[in-house]
Amino acid sequence: MKTFEEKWTAWLDEKLSGKELEEFEAALPDLQVALAEKRDARRLGVFLKEQLAAQRLTNEEFFSHQIRERIARETENDSPERATGTTWWTIPRLVWCGATALALFLITTFMFLGQQESSEQSDYLTQILKSQVNPVDSPNATVSIFESKTDNKVTVLWTEGLQSLPADYAAK
Amino acid sequence: MHTETTPAQADVSELDLVKRSQAGDTDAFDQLVTRYRTRVFAMIYNMVHNEQDAWDLAQEAFVKAWKSIGRFKGKSSFYTWIYRIVMNVTIDWLRKRQVKAGGAEFDDAIELKQIDPASKTVPKADPLPHKRMEHKEIRDRIDKAIEQLSPEHRAVILMKEIEEMQYHEIAETLGCSIGTVMSRLFYARKKLQNALRDVYENV
């Protein structure tokens, strides 16, 4: 449902036709006054067009030059939102970067811990240098000599299941 | 809508220029600026009535258009799209200037008797002395009359009477309904008729 203002404007601009035009003109209290007003409004339109359309942009080339310079500056600073219409730091990219950073952190952490464990192990890692057991005297016995890998000054003699230490035993 | 083009430029379609601009081609955008700079400047000048301000606002509008041209989907014509940017920039500027100046709200209301056609709202203007008004004097009268309108009413009357845009194009440009455009046009015309009748009846 059009308001009176809308109908009046449409009537002035010759946009009313048929039944709508007839109804509108019939509803006007004084058609002659309205027609005079219509002519007056159209005269105003012509007058404005004549007076205002003449406004020219002086120094057009300088105007364009300034815009080119501003655009060049803007492009250097930050590339404009081109065809995609999005910025680089979109939310999916931020999430992706966050996940990557977390994965890198976890990998680095596990690698570091693994290295630490093997380093601790290496302190205690020993090497069997010699094992001498008399299977007759001590069938279940083992004799091992361990030497610290990191500190060659420490040597451990480990015996297990021996009844007695053989007299001629010499640890090297 | 007429554009400012040379025959060689006319061969290049506007859509092609827009697509190239979207791909970052500044030369293509420069051609778009050349096509519309005069009309954009004139439109802004008619709203702000100051050459330097109009120049700055037109520059700002074109730079904004460059920045956001990637978002132009071609659903409307390019000139409607760029006019929308121009109008946003200009209306914002007018509103901010009004706030800074501490001015009163634009009075868009008019007396009821001026709306009713039966109330004989077309008084015959008093004839001026037997001399034509100077062009500058006329221009000043028009500027003062337009300054009495709100930015939205200025935009509507200028787009309709100067740019000869259709209601739906004006509505698209201003982001409002066609009914709102027609209503604003009604009030803007009434105000300008009352303010300028003695001028245009004697020019």
Biggest chain contact: A-B, 49 and 56 residues
Mind describing the biggest β-sheet of chain B? none
Oligomer: heterodimer
Helical segment count of chain B: 10
Strand segment tally of chain A: 2
Arithmetic mean of pLDDT of chain A? 77
The top level CATH class name of the largest domain in chain B = Mainly Alpha
Structural class determined from secondary elements of chain A: mainly alpha
Distance between the termini of chain A: 112 Å
Task: Please tell me how large the radius of gyration of chain A is.
Answer: 50 Å
How many strand segments of chain B? Answer: 0
CATH architecture level-2 label of the largest domain in chain B? Orthogonal Bundle
Helicity range of chain B = 55-70%
User: Structural class from helices and strands of chain B?
Assistant: mainly alpha
Mean of all residue-level pLDDT scores of chain B:
84
Instruction: Give the CATH superfamily of the largest domain in chain B.
Output: RNA polymerase sigma factor, region 2, helix turn helix motif
Give a quick set of tags describing it:
heterodimer, A: 172 residues, mainly alpha, two-stranded antiparallel sheet, 5 helices, 2 strands, rod-shaped, B: 203 residues, Rna Polymerase Sigma Factor, Chain: A, Arc Repressor Mutant, subunit A, 2 domains, 10 helices, globular
Walk me through the topology.
The complex is a heterodimer of chains A (172) and B (203).
Chain A: H1 4-12, H2 18-27, H3 31-52, H4 60-77, H5 91-124, E1 142-147, E2 155-160
Antiparallel strand pairs in A: 1-2
Chain B: H1 7-11, H2 14-22, H3 26-48, H4 51-68, H5 78-101, H6 112-115, H7 135-147, H8 151-161, H9 167-174, H10 178-200
Helix pairs in contact in B: 2-3, 3-4, 3-5, 4-5, 5-9, 7-10, 8-10, 9-10
